[in-house]
Design a protein that fits this description.
The chain is an all-alpha fold and 68 residues long. It is 68% helix and 0% strand.
């Protein structure tokens, strides 16, 4: 049960939520950057246009639409 004890300790760590939020913001930033690098044909394939990408690029990182 050592692994379980360590997991519970890490989960109760006071700053764990902050670190998870920062990691999620970094991932969101990377995804928006990769989306901005796609050409118009690739965007059309996934059902987006350049205006959608620009709208996402200018959103604040804390404006996470999923609010996880």
């Amino acid at each position: 049960m050592k692994g379980q004890k360590g997991f519970v300790w890490l989960h109760k760590w006071p700053l764990a939520g902050l670190f998870h939020t920062i990691a999620r913001w970094q991932l969101l930033h990377q995804e928006r950057h990769l989306l901005a690098t796609l050409n118009d044909d690739a965007l059309k394939d996934i059902g987006l246009n350049r205006a959608d990408v620009e709208q996402q690029a200018h959103r604040h990182l804390w404006g996470d639409p999923l609010r996880k």
